[in-house]
Amino acid sequence: MEFRKINDDLTVSPQIATDDMAEIAAAGYRSIICNRPDGEGSDQQSFEEIEAAARQHGLEARYLPVVSGKVQDGDAEDFGRALRELPGPVFAYCRTGTRSTTLWSLAQAKTMSTAEILMAAKNAGYDMAGVVRRIVNGGKTPTDTGDASFDVVVVGGGAAGIAVAASLKARLPSLEIALLDPADVHYYQPGWTMVGGGIFEPETTAKTMGSLIPKGVHWIKSAVAAFEPGNNAVVLDGCRVVKYDRLIVCPGLKLDWGKVDGLVETLGKNGVTSNYRYDLAPYTWELVKGLKTGRALFTQPPMPIKCAGAPQKAMYLSGDHWFREGVLPDIDIQFMNAGGVLFGVKDYVPALEQYVKKYGATLNFFHNLVAVDGPAKKATFAVNKPETEPETVELEFDIMHVCPPQTAPDFIRVSPLADAAGWVDVDQNTLRHKSYDNIWSLGDVMNAPNAKTAAAARMQAPIVAENVAADIEGASPRAMYNGYGSCPLTVERGKIVLAEFGYGGTLLPSFPKWVIDGTKPTRAAWLLKEQILPPIYWKAMLRGKEWMAKPEKVSAS
Asked: Locate the Beta-lactamase hydrolase-like protein phosphatase-like domain: which residues (predicted)?
């Protein structure tokens, strides 16, 4: 027999027999629910036989038969009531376990998020895609789906989403495009490092979403609950359904603050900050200015993360301020990196190491932040060095800049679009989905092995727009992505190491060396970051003007 655990309260299973009761009872279960009608198959014993055997082993049993493929709303209500009334944990079964899982999924729809339900079912080996609309609708069968239909639907109103919608609209102005995003505000996230360094004001990194939606693009201000790629449909929170001919998926990453024990409770106080949040970046600068002596920790979680250089950018700008203020000798800078290298592309490492030396920073590799005690100002790290026994170390701090663990959003990870690791599964050259040829993805949420940066999205948006336009015209993909990403590493106020690279760490500089040598700190790269890139972002990239990003067309051969 099989134990397919949904959660601590419920386990489901394919058909069981009376001989299984001893094992079920020994595993700690206290009740059994049968969701298979008697006489459905020759392989099953009657519920009366199962019930008698269950009682011999101290188990309660309840009969809630459901015809295969015909789970009614009332059946789910009965199942939920049984879970509340029966002593737990509960063991439920049918022919394969699917009906029992479906009943549980619908019964929990009012108390759990759709993504949580789908993930629990998926982990137990069951796909609930067939009832996702009912789950989104609170466990009830929708009576009116309120379908809307568009030529192209774009999921996500961040840098990638608005840019690709604008680029596509510029190519094919007559397209009916809908952009789905519930947010009121759009942020220029690359600017938050500069806010944390006292260079930008936070207000300059935010604009209203409505002011940025490209002209002629329909903005649907709602979150996505689930995808139905087989039906060319996106299900929204509240169970509205949006149909599409082509879909572009780019909702960005989930910052998983809760994965570090105690972090959520102490963010923004007790000396704990992060440039990965708009409201916290000013606190970074406040802490840096106020520190005259003590220990400063800067953390970096396991990859992938967006803007892999951001954790050390915060360290460099802080170190530069303390250097200029003359207090650097009294400050112990510790860089706590879950990975094993300072930067993934070796060509830029020598320049960075010079600044690590200048600021007297200690590099601690294979140190992953797992817990924070804010009031006590203590941080706990799991240390997993190669060929060394894992250990845990605790460090006291005066201030700590945290880069949170990051994953794809829950509704992406549980969707049919995701690969085994939870990222949207695309061809790394065309950015077209590997299984659904009318779906594309770009930005941080797809699984191409490139750096997750705004500069990457700036390059990807025209490529996806070009390829979607080609597909609409019946042609093969016309543009290929080379993995380009850029990370302007702010090593001091006034100088930047401009890392630009593609797949495999190949250097892809945008300028001749005599203009900007990316492997060295330059004033020109700083001016680019401080004065040129922000207006390019707001006035070009988000408006479909592909400055330095227009894709080269390639032949089908």
From this structure: 3-110
